[in-house]
Amino acid sequence: MLMYRTPAGWQLERESRRLAIPGAGITTREDLHSYLVNLAQSAPEAAAPTGLLAPIEQQEVWAAGVTYYRSRTARMAESEATGGMSFYDRVYQAERPELFFKSTPHRVANPDEPVRIRRDSHWNVPEPELTLLVSPGGKITGYTIGNDMSSRDIEGENPLYLPQAKVYDRSCALGPAILVAEGSLPATTAITLEIARGAAPIFHDSTTLEKMKRRPEELVEYLYRENSFPNGCFLLTGTGIVPGDGFTLQPGDEISISIDGIGTLRNIVG
Fold first, then answer.
1. CA atoms in the 13 A half-sphere facing the CB of 81
2. What's the pTM value of the predicted model, to 2 decimals?
3. CA angle, corner 240, sides to 223 and 190, nearest 5?
4. Residue 207 domain boundaries
5. Over the stretch 166-209, which tens digit does the pLDDT of each residue have?
6. Is 15 left (phi over 0), alpha (psi -120 to 50) or beta?
7. 234: which residues sit within 8 A by CB, 6+ positions away?
8. Is residue 248 included in any domain, yes or no?
9. How many domains are contained in the chain?
């Protein structure tokens, strides 16, 4: 089942049917899958929307880093390129994951809306990530696509600058839908990143969840230690795709991130 947030409210896509979902706050339900299955029996039909909103209500957005080997090597390159000392190999091997705050709802870009690069940065990349919808009780209730926009030169200069490299207006995009499914996604689930410039493709790469070092449940367990989320949260789980060191985004670039079963999140760099 796929849930879409539209200007008219939430919609459910199930067995090729579009259904209207009444009310707000449904994404905080611990029994979201069961709720939607039961609702689908009586929910009214809905017309396909003309535009989609990011599938977020009042949740915070958090992120995990160095959960793929490719991310580890990229982060080490950032530090080395700016003359810093890298400790990301130790983060990759450590029991405790790297977790950091990413965004509030008003900073999140909708599908097909612009994401931004910082004016005080010269090395910027998108990071395509499987994103978890987590209930207030710490249960993974759904999955969506996240784009963790990152200023690699700022973070590489000093790890303490990570909030400035990662957290700013429209540095995060979510969508286009939430996949509501019981159980974990298959390890073979593919994540693909494509970047176009002037309608011409300039980057393409893909990975699968089997290359992720940490389990999503492990990341959630650490995030919820000594932390409360009354509205639940979204958790980006890290990236296994990072463009090479000679690549940086430019205004007008089109970023497309696809994940099996969820769809494609598209944004233009504004």
1. 16
2. 0.93
3. 100
4. 60-268
5. 999 999 999 999 999 988 999 999 999 999 999 999 999 999 99
6. left
7. 56, 59, 60, 61, 62, 131, 132, 133, 134, 144, 146, 174
8. yes
9. 1
